[in-house]
Amino acid sequence: MYYYRIFDDQEKLNYVKSSLSHSELEQWLKEYEARHQKYFNSELIQFLREHDNEAEIIEVSDLSY
Q1: SS3 label, residue 64
Q2: Helix (H) or strand (E) holding 3
Q3: What is the pTM of this model?
C-alpha cells in the first residue's frame, strides 16, 4: 500500500491511500488531466477507483496537546 500527498486546483491538501505504485499513479493522473480542465481531489479518487478499488482519501486533522 502506498500513501501520497495531493493538492487540487483549490489548493486543498489531502492524502491518498492506493495500491498503485508511483509510476502507475502518474500514468492514470495523465489520463485524468487529459479528461478534465479543473482538478478536484474527490473526482480524482472516483477516477482512481476505476483502476484501484482500494484508493481512498485519508482525512488528516491537527491534534494539539
Answers
A1: coil
A2: strand 2-7
A3: 0.76
For 7, the enclosing helix (H) or strand (E) is strand 2-7
Share of the chain above pLDDT 90, in %: 57
- Are residues 3 and 40 in contact, defined by beta-carbon separation less than 8 angstroms? no
Report d(CA 12, CA 35) in Å as an integer.
20
Backbone angles phi, psi at 19, to 5 degrees: -90, 0
Q: How do the domains of the chain map onto residue ranges?
A: 2-58
- What is the gyration radius of the CA atoms in the chain, in angstroms? 12
User: What cell was used for 59?
Assistant: 482525512
Spell 9-32 as b/e; 16+ CB within 10 A means b.
eeeeebebebebeeeebeebbeee
